[in-house]
């Protein structure tokens, strides 16, 4: 179903947002039977509580939604999304109790509660229809919801239907929708145009590797987004065990996140010159597979010793980042489902990121809270640089020892961004392990709303 607000109408039922313990105070303005109904129902305003309040004739006259306490709200991303399914079949209009500073994000959460991945069977949840709350920019919130839905759909689609060719097709549809230009460099042309590591990682697969290059916008500061597009990762010759391969359709989650962010930027008409680069490959096993101990020469000219073919994401990103760096954009951001170490450090909810300037980190931190898109800064810790220097080549793609895996991966990527001072890298999970209000189990956007919220500050828009 479209993630849209309902048009306001006289038939819409008033929705009152009630802090925990505040139901009786709200009921004082109503006849005695309303308080009696609240008593009988046990409604006390806890998060997840919901209630339809009848008029004297038995028909609903209002709906109540629990808003909890400040303490319990801090533990939940989208509060009102928890009650959206309870009001299925109704159209609701927020009448009271929604704080102004929470209105946009709670409205977004309600819309996202209606998301379901329905490519193979209808999984659209039944939720109440919500009119845009007063003061909320309905078009903006719908744009955010649609961008998130795109990201989720791309990640949720299995590799049989979301290989490099399909990822290119999805990117092309997005480009056509907004009048952007898309160039694709495919197969042996990657070698001709000096993208050797993208070619090396993807050459073993049935579908040729490619680099997707989308451009949009004619004026304003330059923003380049780079997303890891490994459509499936077997681990290559360092083959993953089955238990680790089960979620590898999501290894293009970085690409899905930058495409969702790009859609929001274009739909909102931000005055930027946007570039999106996606190395789209499948890391497969065949006689063409790159091997442990191979040494690859990157676009940047740096040589890379391969000590684990399962550390392929940083290789394809490196060539794309080197290309982006040649234009010296005002801001460059990469996103990738890159390391298990980041998951160990931050778990599935937080999006760890690295930034070359404190101002980037500060802006992202300020934007993350209002966007309900939590991020966590990690350091480019320079004493660890020696860990990615193997001696036989300039760089090691998989340092031994098991320490600081997310940091060493980020330091590896930074070696390919030498002429662009303002760079941030996100090491995301891109997956919701179990369903939560507004976040269905499966693919997930992590970081795009925080980035979007920070762009006006970062690019002086």
Automatic annotation (TrEMBL):
Residues of the Cytosol aminopeptidase domain: 308-315
PANTHER family noted in UniProt: LEUCINE AMINOPEPTIDASE-RELATED, PEPTIDASE B
Protein's name in the database: Leucyl aminopeptidase
InterPro entries tied to this protein: Leucine_aapep/pepB (IPR011356), Macro_dom-like (IPR043472), Peptidase_M17_C (IPR000819), Peptidase_M17_N_1 (IPR048816)
Family: Belongs to the peptidase M17 family.
Keyword field: Aminopeptidase, Hydrolase, Manganese, Protease
A GO BP annotation: proteolysis
MF annotations from Gene Ontology: manganese ion binding; metalloaminopeptidase activity
Alphabetical list of PROSITE patterns matching this protein: CYTOSOL_AP
Domain of life: Bacteria
Gene Ontology CC terms: cytoplasm
Keyword Manganese: yes
């Amino acid at each position: 179903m479209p993630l849209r607000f309902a048009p306001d109408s006289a038939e819409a039922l008033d929705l009152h947002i009630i802090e925990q313990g505040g139901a009786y105070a709200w009921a004082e303005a109503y006849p005695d039977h309303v308080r009696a109904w609240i008593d009988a129902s046990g409604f006390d305003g806890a998060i997840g509580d919901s209630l339809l309040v009848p008029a004297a004739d038995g028909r609903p006259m209002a709906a109540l939604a629990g808003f909890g306490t400040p303490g319990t709200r801090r533990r939940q991303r989208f509060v009102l999304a928890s009650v959206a399914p309870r009001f299925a079949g109704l159209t609701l209009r927020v009448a009271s109790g929604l704080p102004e500073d929470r209105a946009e994000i709670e409205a977004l959460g309600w819309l996202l509660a209606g998301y379901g991945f329905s490519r193979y069977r209808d999984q659209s949840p039944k939720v109440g229809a919500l009119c845009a709350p007063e003061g909320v920019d309905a078009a903006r919130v719908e744009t955010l919801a649609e961008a998130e839905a795109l990201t989720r759909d791309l990640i949720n689609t299995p590799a049989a239907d979301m290989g490099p060719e399909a990822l290119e097709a999805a990117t092309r549809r997005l480009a056509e929708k907004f009048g952007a230009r898309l160039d694709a460099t495919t197969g042996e042309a990657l070698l001709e145009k000096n993208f050797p590591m993208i070619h090396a990682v993807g050459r073993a697969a049935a579908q040729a590797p490619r680099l997707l290059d989308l451009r949009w916008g004619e004026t304003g500061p330059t923003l380049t987004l780079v997303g890891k597009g490994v459509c499936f990762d077997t681990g290559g010759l360092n083959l993953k065990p089955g238990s680790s391969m089960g979620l590898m359709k999501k290894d293009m989650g970085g690409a899905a996140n930058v495409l969702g962010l790009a859609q929001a930027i274009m739909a909102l008409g931000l005055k930027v010159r946007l570039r999106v680069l996606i190395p789209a490959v499948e890391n497969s096993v065949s006689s063409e597979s790159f091997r442990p101990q191979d040494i690859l020469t990157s676009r940047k000219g740096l040589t890379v010793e391969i000590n684990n073919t399962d550390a392929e994401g940083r290789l394809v990103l490196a060539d794309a980042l080197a290309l982006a760096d040649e234009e010296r954009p005002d801001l460059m951001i990469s996103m990738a489902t890159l390391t298990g170490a980041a998951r160990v450090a931050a778990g599935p909810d937080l999006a760890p990121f690295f930034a070359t300037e404190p101002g980037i980190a500060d802006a992202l931190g300020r934007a993350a809270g209002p966007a309900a898109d939590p991020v966590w800064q990690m350091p480019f810790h320079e004493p660890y640089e020696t860990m990615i220097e193997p001696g036989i080549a300039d760089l090691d793609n998989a340092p031994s020892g098991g320490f600081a895996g997310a940091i060493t991966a980020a330091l590896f990527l930074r070696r390919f961004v030498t002429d662009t001072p303002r760079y941030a890298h996100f090491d995301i999970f891109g997956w919701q392990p179990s369903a939560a209000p507004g976040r269905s189990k499966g693919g997930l956007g992590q970081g795009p709303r925080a980035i979007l919220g920070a762009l006006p500050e970062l690019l002086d828009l």
